[in-house]
Amino acid sequence: MTRTRNHRRRRGAGPAAILGLALLLADASDAPAVSVAAAAAASDDYEIGVENFLYRSQSTLLNRDNVFGLDPTENLFRLTATGRSTFGRFAVKASAFLEQQTGRTDKTKVTFRQAFVDYRTDEGFLLRVGKQKTAWGSGFAWNPTARLEPPKSPANPGAEQPGIDAVRIDVSPSDWGSLTLVAGRAEAGLTDLPGSLARETEPSWTAAVRARLLVRDTDIALTYLAGTRRPGLWGLDLGRTWGSVALHAESALYRASEIDQARPDDSFLRVAAGALWSPGNSSLSLEYFWNGEGMTGSQYNAYTGRLDRNLATARDQRLPEAARNLAFAAWSVDAAIPFAENLGLRRHYASISFTRKDIATDLNANLRAVSGLSDRGLIVTPGLAYAPTGNVQMSLDIVLLFGPETAEYKLAPIRRAFQARLKYSF
Amino acid sequence: MPAVAQAPSNEATRILEKAQATILGETASYTLRMTVNRTGKSPRVVTMEGFKSGDDRGLVRYLDPPKEKGTAYLRRDDNTYIYLPAAEKVARVGPKQTFGGGDFNNGDIFRLSLSRDYEATLAGEETVNGASCHVLELKARNRGVAYDRVRYLVRKDGTFFPCFAEYFTISGKKLKTLRSDEVELVGGRRRPTRMIMENAIETGAFTELKFLKIDDRPKLDERMFSPASLERER
């Protein structure tokens, strides 16, 4: 499913309280002598910016007769700000945006992407409290082991992801291994589509432990993750350089389907494997994703058929209201699946990404393509990035969808998106 | 300039090892300014801090310009990683990737032991800018290194300062030329402080690295040279 932007439906808890705590902690720190390791991490960075995401909506299998009620053009305009300051062993980071949505609904809101406090020692210990991102995994477009936070969009991996409210502890007992513990609260039902119907659920708690090792020039990360809505997930992540190519394989074995809630006891495997080749000023990455719980062709047809039937029933004025409400509720559950926590509805996916720096003065070009191999759906995202000075960055990306109308990626009620960003760093 | 092939020699290796040690000590921290020059474009200047531990470990982090601040490269043995602040992600990259968009690649910056990666052979003498130099022919021990062959010139005046190098493909095509100069007193001893890598393929393209500060005896925690420490940058 196309996910071209990300926002939370509710604000994260207590960024002001976190900042207040940070200031208290900063006052309490006694400006210790700063070692090389601590000095390396110490910096103050600030950034302000503007983002505009424009989407062209369309009726689709999921948005039959524009049931979502979208305007032909949905637009998000954001003012963004990010700041990070260090106070001895403490650091504070906050990243937020003020968003105005125009289209189906005209509304303005403030969202914190991150707001956390760090405490770190020279011995490799880190404590982080607040809204934060984990961003685990070596995968480029898909990260089957990073399930603490909502999955990023394979169509737009460069989009900034929101964090979750969490406590994180990192311990590095040696230079070849480290251990990370995270416990956090994520909201399900996140969606990145304008005005879409997300599954409304209570936030779920998840805890995870991750051991990262470097053994014989191979990166190995072992992950275990469990939570209130997730019986358990084992992750194995491998990375290694082969000649001038960096290889990776990230896999997750977990119980309980993320697509079909009626399969809580089945186990599934997901694997993302790929390579990065980056000679000179260019880089080329390829990745394949196997989604073990993905639907077969017949299952997918049954799913879209069920969407149609339930929506038709819900709109049939000849039927009793109770029956129509029941059908609409069933349609809502199915319609939310592509926007829930799963990483894709089908089994086979592939992505390719090419970046070329300096195609002209201060101008970089990139091209990303993601394909659902099972149904020949294709998302192509060409983009340009321009940095005329040391402080300013601009980028423009266009998201285009191709393939048959029945393809998973074309379920999304959009067909094109234009994303423009301007950032000023100081 | 064709070299007279000779068998790899201990003397050539000794000269190479001494030459490498003239710029940075076994352990070092430094501040570096990189200027990337391209025909018809304004120079791109990046200031960075770096740390080195032995021949196998290096860490470089951008300090300026603000839009690139926080970008970090880590080299550990044969593994190279990059941390991109915008993506808040650590990625493993190959040794032949361009370092910071200039004419040096990751292998030039972080492959700190030429004597381990290349078989050195003495191939005569040459004069560079009035200084008599040993000519070393370096042949790659394996294909994983950045260049197949290097012609490396080291001053004969007892300083062992490297002064000139040429980098070739296996077919003999010249890729780059390196010049080391501006011998200055930095960090308590005299050493070449400027290296200019000129691209032999792209006319007018060259990148200058200038050491602004060097400390040859920093106290470094080895844990800073780990991908896990890069992950904690964000």
Explain how this protein is built.
The complex is a heterodimer of chains A (426) and B (234). Chain A has 426 residues and is mostly beta strands. Chain A has four helices and 18 strands. Chain A has an 18-stranded antiparallel β-barrel. In chain A, a hairpin with a 2-residue loop joins strand 2 (73-87) and strand 3. In chain A, helix 3 runs antiparallel to helix 4. The two termini of chain A are 37 Å apart. The relative contact order of chain A is 0.15. Chain B has four helices and 13 strands. In chain B, 50% of the residues are buried. In chain B, strand 5 (79-84) and strand 6 (89-93) form a beta hairpin. Chain B has 234 residues and is mainly beta. Chain B has a 13-stranded antiparallel β-sheet with strand order 6-5-4-3-2-1-13-12-11-10-9-8-7. Chain B has helices at 10-21, 106-110, 114-117, 227-231; strands spanning 27-37, 44-53, 57-64, 72-76, 79-84, 89-93, 118-128, 131-140, 149-155, 162-168, 174-186, 189-199, 206-215.
Keywords:
heterodimer; A: 426 residues; mainly beta; 4 helices; 13% helix; globular; disordered N terminus; B: 234 residues; 13-stranded antiparallel beta sheet; 11% helix
* Total count of strands of chain A: 18
- The CA-CA distance between the termini of chain B, in Å, is 49 Å
Could you say which overall geometry of chain B the principal axes of the C-alpha atoms support? Answer: globular
Strand content of chain A: over 45%
As a percent range, the share of helical residues of chain B equals 10-25%
Estimate the mean pLDDT confidence of chain B: 87
> Biggest chain pair contact, residues each?
A-B, 57 and 56 residues
Shape of chain A: globular
Structural class of chain A: mainly beta
Number of helices of chain A: 4
Stretches of chain A where pLDDT is under 50 for at least 5 consecutive residues are 1-40, 194-199
Strand count of chain B: 13
Largest sheet data of chain A: 18 strands, antiparallel, barrel
Structural class of chain B: mainly beta
In terms of quaternary structure, the protein is heterodimer
Give the neighbour order of strands across the main sheet of chain B: 6-5-4-3-2-1-13-12-11-10-9-8-7
Distance between the termini of chain A: 37 Å
Global mean pLDDT of chain A: 83
State the major sheet of chain B.
13 strands, antiparallel
